[in-house]
Write a structure and sequence with these properties.
This is VWA domain-containing protein. By secondary structure, the protein is an alpha/beta fold. It contains 16 helices and 36 strands. It has a nine-stranded mixed β-sheet. Strand 15, helix 8 and strand 16 (318-323) form a beta-alpha-beta unit. It is flat and about 125 Å long. The chain starts with a helix and ends with a helix.
């Protein structure tokens, strides 16, 4: 309370006292003993009203007790059920939830994890893969400023992601791993990993890299075999011992038939081997007889050119070649797509040959583009010629409908450098990205696609794409998202297919441990994306002839369906637009891949390392009660009494108005009762 407020309160008391004395003593007609009581009521009433006008503020302190948080993360992957520990894990969850001591001591949150970490409602042990490292990354953000020990109930068997025993070193909470599974070690042969390219070319040989491991101490022999159907395409004898526990086998497999070919790689089991499921893995390769050749034509040296080649060739179905404009003349027909990087006057013969051949192209412009020439060489775009440059960022157009283009957070990417001036699209075009200058989003295109008389084109009005690829890696720790973005542009521009009102996007095969998603786009008769359509899919298993019908869901500017619940096998499908008479058909294969059945024991060593790294303690699943007791009695996890202090104005005291009204009422009643006016 300030000194000014204190002086006002003292002044209010003096004024209230003066009013009471003046009315009941100085000016009073009848002076009785009751005048002191009247004066007291009048003083309190006047003083209270003046206090409300002054409205002093006071501090209000509230005390409360805050319990420490406790995160219970439970492995919900299929390996738990395969190891036959699902019942024990479910019992452990019930004991955590029903423990009164534990719930009194902690604010408990339950999570299940497999591929991702999610809030836990119930356990089904249906997750097809396990990434334990994501538990630590998620909890580091969630409990950044809290005391929050973690109970990690898992077999420790991870199928993908960073090695969790090392990522736990940067985790700032105590972790108590609960080991689920057999801790005994049995003799076991394992195919831990198979590396193979997704595509191969007809009449070539493609490499297959097989990682094999042995758990045991004896000298054993086995035979590695790779089969396609009933045909053996490769076999090799291999030996293991206590000193030689792993081998990498590289095989060259002939590609003799076009299409999706499924293969099985297996290790012959040894005597008394308990788990034979991890002796076998399936993989698939799509054999193709064509490749997309892309020519990059430029008269300047720029980091974008190297980036384009690297990004394009990340898809093994594509090759990229660099040439000067003069070198490109006479060779354009050897390529499915020509990329014209920052054209100038030297590009005139290139444009003439493209026009003669009716070849598709992608044009990337920038600060060194000669728009005086380019405006004359093509008829699709006109750019106002100025002598100035500017930096622009990209903003996604949600109405872009030419193909499925995922938003890579373009607005957060570094700006591209472009020529200043208005851009006019002189033909029908679909804008994917608009230019953003500072905080202003303009109508000028940054990325647009065209389709004129059967010739497709892509225009990117800015240089510096290499910065986008670098930023995408910083954001996602992978080049894959950006390379897919470039691949979509290449796929569209390199295709000579006529425009269809119903387009499908799907892979020829999927692995059974991943998601199986198909995408579709439907356009009205003006080739504008129609988000009101009802698309359905009919999927038929070619072997069992089982039929699965389902609707597509609308996701932004595409329709999507998730068929991950289908069992492995060969499928044909038909996508139909209801009431429009439009349908498209195709086929795909789901390759069996039960990675969660590859484990025989719990990974005790990795879980023990997590406990050591985080100053926690490791327990086995049968010692849950001991874990609960230890946590409840641990002095590091005591409830903390905290307080909050709020500054409250006196006018918020609603009961003070009631007191003033009551005082006035009593004074009035006493005066009337005693005959005073």
């Amino acid at each position: 309370m300030t000194s000014t407020t204190l002086l006002l309160i003292i002044g209010a008391a003096i004024v209230a006292l003066a009013v009471a004395v003046f009315q009941y003593f100085y000016k009073a007609t009848y002076k009785t003993k009751r005048n002191k009581i009247y004066a007291l009521f009048r003083f309190c009433t006047v003083f209270g009203l003046l206090l409300l006008l002054i409205n002093p503020k006071y501090k209000q302190q509230t005390f409360y007790t805050e319990k420490p948080s406790l995160a219970v993360a439970i492995d919900n992957s299929a390996s738990i059920r395969y190891l036959e520990y699902d019942t024990q894990v479910e019992d452990a969850l019930v004991r955590f939830r029903e423990s009164k001591n534990l719930n009194d001591a902690f604010d408990i949150q339950y999570f299940g994890f497999g591929t991702n970490v999610e809030t836990l409602d119930s356990l089904d042990f249906a997750e097809r893969q396990t990434n334990i490292a994501t538990v630590f990354s998620s909890f580091n953000s969630l409990y950044r400023n809290d005391v929050a020990p973690v109970i990690l109930v898992s077999d420790g068997n991870q199928t993908f992601g960073e090695a969790f025993e090392y990522t736990s070193k940067n985790f700032n909470q105590n972790v108590y791993p609960v080991v689920v599974g057999d801790t005994l070690v049995y003799d076991d042969l394992i195919i831990s990993q198979v590396n193979v390219n997704r595509y191969a070319y007809i009449n070539n040989k493609f490499p297959v890299e097989v990682f094999t491991n042995y758990n045991g101490s004896n000298d054993v022999s086995s035979r590695l075999t790779i089969r396609s159907g009933n045909t053996t395409v490769y076999q090799q004898n291999i030996n293991f011992s206590n000193q030689k526990k792993s081998q990498i086998i590289t095989a060259l497999i002939p590609a003799n038939s076009v299409g999706v070919q499924q293969y099985t790689v297996s290790l012959q089991s040894i005597e008394n081997e308990k788990n034979k499921n991890n002796n076998r893995k399936n993989f698939a390769v799509e054999i193709i007889d064509q490749k997309t050749n892309v020519l990059i034509v430029s008269d300047i040296t720029h980091p974008d050119i190297g980036m384009l080649k690297k990004s394009i060739e990340s898809n093994r179905l594509r090759t990229a070649t660099f040439a000067k404009p003069a070198e490109a003349i006479g060779t354009l027909n050897e390529y499915q797509l020509v990329i014209l990087y920052q054209p100038n006057g030297l590009f005139q013969p290139v444009y003439r040959e493209l026009e003669t051949l009716g070849k598709n192209s992608m044009t990337i412009t920038g600060a060194k583009t000669d728009w005086n020439i380019l405006n004359q060489l093509q008829t699709e775009v006109f750019h106002e010629v100025t002598a100035q440059d500017e930096d622009v960022q990209g903003i996604s157009n949600p109405n872009f409908s030419t193909f499925v283009l995922n938003d890579l957070n373009f607005s957060d990417f570094p700006p591209l450098k472009t020529s200043f001036g208005d851009i006019t699209l002189k033909t029908e075009a679909d804008i994917a990205l608009y230019q953003k200058i500072g905080a202003i989003t303009t109508d000028a295109p940054l990325l647009a696609t065209t389709d004129q008389n059967g010739r497709r084109g892509v225009y990117i009005f800015g240089e510096g794409l290499w910065r986008w690829r670098a930023q995408s890696y910083v954001d996602t720790r992978s080049f894959e998202s950006f390379d897919n973005f470039i691949d979509n542009l290449i796929q569209y521009a390199a295709s000579n297919k006529r425009k269809s009102r119903l387009n499908l996007d799907y892979d020829s095969f999927y692995y059974g441990n991943g998601s199986v998603k198909l995408y579709a786009q439907y356009f009205d008769k003006n080739y504008v994306f129609d988000n009101r359509a009802a698309l359905t899919i009919k999927v038929i298993n070619k072997e069992t002839e089982d039929v699965y019908d389902a609707p597509f869901l609308l996701q932004r500017n595409a329709y999507e369906i998730d068929l991950s619940n289908l069992v492995p096998g060969d499928y044909s499908f038909t996508v139909t637009v209801q009431d429009q008479g439009l349908a498209r058909s195709g086929s795909f294969t789901i390759v069996p891949f039960e990675v969660e059945q590859q484990f025989l024991n719990a990974n005790v060593a990795a879980l023990s390392q997590v406990a050591t790294n985080t100053n926690g303690t490791q327990y086995i699943i049968s010692n849950i009660d001991q874990l609960i007791t230890s946590l409840v009695e641990d002095s590091r996890y005591r409830p903390v009494q905290k307080s909050t202090e709020n500054v409250v104005p006196l006018i918020d005291w609603k009961w003070l108005l009631a007191v003033l009204a009551l005082l006035l009422g009593i004074e009035w009643f006493m005066r009337k009762y005693n005959g005073l006016t």
